[in-house]
Amino acid sequence: MVGFETRGARIDVLHGIDLEVVAGRTLGLVGESGCGKSVTMMAAMGLLGKRGTVSGSIRIDGEELVGKSEPEWRKSADAALR
């Protein structure tokens, strides 16, 4: 689930997303304007900012990324791309 903290409350904006990207393959994410494509990918890359929150699981090569700091995300992503 992806949400944002605003005025002391959490607003959930995306839920029930399940994607798998296989090495050597390309995944396309399509949909209408405002349906959450950019927020989905920003969450997957750890780029939501201080007010954005992610619950659930985001893994690269089996390594859990939710809850890691930005430097830890970068290290994991860099390792996965090699």
What does the model show?
The chain has 82 residues and is α+β, with helices and mostly antiparallel strands. The chain has one domain. Helix content is 24%, strand content 22%. Strands 2-1-3 form a 3-stranded antiparallel β-sheet, with helices on one face. Strands 4-5 form a two-stranded antiparallel ribbon. A hairpin with a 2-residue loop joins strand 1 and strand 2. The mean pLDDT is 87.
Fraction in helix: 10-25%
Mean pLDDT: 87
Number of domains: 1
Strands of the largest sheet, in order across it?
2-1-3
Distance between the termini: 29 Å
The number of strands is 5
The major β-sheet equals: 3 strands, antiparallel
Number of distinct helices: 2
Please give the radius of gyration in angstroms.
13 Å
Order of helices and strands: EEHEEEH
Kindly estimate the percentage of residues that lie in beta strands according to DSSP. Answer: 15-25%
Class of secondary structure makeup: alpha+beta
Shape field? globular
Low-confidence stretches: none
Give short descriptive properties of this protein.
22% strand, 3-stranded antiparallel sheet, 2 helices, alpha+beta, 5 strands, 24% helix, 82 residues, two-stranded antiparallel sheet
Give a short overview:
The protein is of the alpha+beta class and 82 residues long.
Question: What's the helix and strand layout?
Answer:
Elements lengths: L1 E5 L2 E6 L22 H8 L7 E3 L4 E2 L2 E2 L5 H12 L1
Antiparallel strand pairs: 1-2, 1-3, 4-5
